[in-house]
Design goal:
The structure is a single chain. Helices cover 26% and strands 4% of the residues. The chain is built from 11 helices and 6 strands. The chain has helices spanning 6-21, 24-34, 44-51, 77-80, 102-105, 120-124, 146-150, 156-160, 163-168, 210-213, 246-249, and strands at 74-75, 117-118, 135-136, 182-183, 207-208, 271-272. The strands form 3 sheets. It has a two-stranded antiparallel sheet. It has a two-stranded antiparallel ribbon with strand order 2-4. It has a two-stranded antiparallel sheet with strand order 5-6. Helix 1 runs antiparallel to helix 2 (24-34).
Length: 279
C-alpha cells in the first residue's frame, strides 16, 4: 500500500475537486496537463446528453418523440454544458461576472435594443424576475407559466374587471395582446393586438388616418373599456380636437354650418378613398 504524505493527499484532493467542479473545457485542460494521451474534448452536445439521460431535455433532438403528457425540462445552455464560469465568477462564489441585463445581452443580442415602452423588469434589468437562469419546465425558462407569472405582479382581480379581458382573454393568454419585453404602443400592446379581433380591412383604404397608419389605436380607443360607443376615449368633436386645432377646422366653410358637431357624420375615422376621409 502506498504511503502518501499529507501534502500529496491534499494535492490529489485539490485536483479531484477541480475535476468535479470545473466546466468540461477546464477539466479537459487539467487532464491534458497531468496525463499524456487524453482524448479530444467531447462536443458540448454529447456532454449535455450524457448529463441529462434521466431527464427529458427539449434542447436535444432525440427528445422530440416523447409523449405529449411527459413533463419537459428546458435548460439554459451554459448550465446544461456546465459552463458555469460564463456567467459566474470563479473567484467569488455566487457572484455574476456582469450584472443583469448586461450579462444576458451578451448572448441574447436581440434584446440589446428595446422599443419605446418597456416592461418594468426590462427597464430595471431584472431578467431573473421572470426567467430562471438555469432550468425550467416552462418555455423561455420562465419561472411560471401563462397568467400565473403575470399575476405575481399584476392584480388579477383588477385586470379581469376590464371589458376586453372579460370577453376576449378568459384563458389568461396575456401574450396574445401584450409584449413581455417592450413595444412602441402603450400598455405594451403588440402592433397587431387590435387585429386579433378586428378586421384588418380597415387598413386597405387608399388614405389612412394617422393613428391607423401608425398602429396607434389607443390614441382614440380605450384598450379595455369606456362608457362610449366604440370604446372611444372621448366623443366627437372633443376627441378630434385633441389633435386637430379648432381654428384650422372652422376656416372651412363646410364646417361653419350650425348644428354640425359630430365629425363622424361626414368623415370616416379610419381612412377613405380621398384625403379627407369623406364618406
Amino acid at each position: 500500500m502506498l504511503n502518501l504524505g499529507n501534502k500529496h493527499i491534499i494535492i490529489i484532493g485539490i485536483i479531484l475537486l477541480m475535476l468535479v467542479a470545473c466546466s468540461p473545457t477546464a477539466r479537459h485542460a487539467i487532464l491534458k496537463t497531468i496525463f499524456d494521451g487524453v482524448p479530444p474534448l467531447e462536443s458540448p452536445e454529447l456532454t449535455a446528453k450524457a448529463d441529462t439521460l434521466k431527464q427529458v431535455d427539449t434542447t436535444n433532438k432525440d427528445s422530440t418523440n416523447v409523449p405529449d403528457n411527459t413533463k419537459r425540462t428546458y435548460y439554459h445552455l451554459p448550465y446544461l454544458t456546465k459552463e458555469c464560469a460564463s456567467c459566474h465568477s470563479e473567484q467569488h462564489m455566487g457572484q455574476l461576472v456582469k450584472e443583469e441585463p448586461d450579462l444576458c445581452i451578451e448572448c441574447h443580442v436581440g434584446l440589446a435594443s428595446f422599443d419605446m415602452v418597456r416592461h418594468g423588469p426590462v427597464r430595471g434589468g431584472y431578467c431573473s424576475s421572470c426567467h430562471n437562469p438555469h432550468k425550467s419546465e416552462e418555455k423561455g425558462l420562465l419561472i411560471a407559466g401563462g397568467e400565473k407569472l403575470c399575476y405575481t405582479c399584476h392584480d388579477q382581480q383588477l385586470t379581469e374587471q376590464t371589458v376586453i379581458h372579460q370577453k376576449k382573454n378568459k384563458k389568461g393568454e396575456c401574450l396574445t395582446c401584450h409584449s413581455p419585453h417592450s413595444s412602441d404602443n402603450g400598455y405594451l400592446l403588440t402592433s397587431d393586438a387590435c387585429y386579433q379581433c378586428h378586421d384588418k380591412k380597415v387598413r386597405d383604404y387608399s388614405f389612412l388616418h394617422g393613428p391607423v397608419a401608425g398602429n396607434y389605436c389607443t390614441t382614440c380607443h380605450s384598450d379595455h373599456g369606456t362608457g362610449s360607443k366604440g370604446l372611444l376615449i372621448d366623443a366627437a368633436p372633443e376627441l378630434c380636437l385633441g389633435c386637430h386645432t379648432e381654428s384650422t377646422i372652422f376656416m372651412n366653410k363646410e364646417h361653419q354650418v350650425p348644428g354640425i358637431d359630430d365629425c363622424l357624420n361626414c368623415h370616416n375615422p379610419h381612412g377613405g378613398e380621398n384625403q379627407f376621409f369623406l364618406r
